[in-house]
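Assess this today:

___
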Amino acid sequence: MGNRSPWTCVLWDVDGTIVDASEGILRRLAVTLEHFGKTAPTRAELVHWIGPPMFQSFQVTGGMTPDQAAEAVAFYRVLGKADGYTAGAKLFAGVGELIRQLAEDGVPQATASSKPEVQVAALMDHFDLSPCFTAIVGATPDERTLAAKADIVAEALRRLEAAGVDTSRPVLVGDRHHDVEGGAERGVPVIFVRWGFSWPHEAAGAQAAVATVDELRHLLLIGDAGA
């Protein structure tokens, strides 16, 4: 007998939740910030950068004006395209298997990422996860037109609904405070995962917080034979 879910659909953040892309992000950030006369971040400082839209991070963390941040984002994206969006990226252990299990058990899923959608699609293709998702949703290339987490969550729900999915009991899986805040703005509960790039206090306001994929599975599936 297959498993069932207490949720009608599952939305996934990507960076820090499904994918560890920190190696490539750190390298591109270092090149970009040095190009604009700023100090390159250390790996420990990546927590300030990974998660929110880069347009926002270049202002808040990088100390840039909106115009400078827009230039920096464009420069950063050129580097990313040259690298290949999947360079150095890896799945967090067990997450891909859980996504596949949810798909096999008929649970509709969508990404809801602050990364540009073209990059999200490339990553899901790279890891052979695209068939598991009813909708792959991310930010617009400029990270300004569609970038706020609440708006991305709303767009993911809109596309799921358009595909005939029941969106009456959605849940968002994420690893940063802006996931929690964005979900709350749209009335979507959040399961906070602690294996990403975050501080413990960022889980405040989440429906639950988990440290392992097994703990997450228990919250997403009922009757799991492996539980």
Observations:
- The CA atoms of residues 15 and 51 lie 6 Å apart.
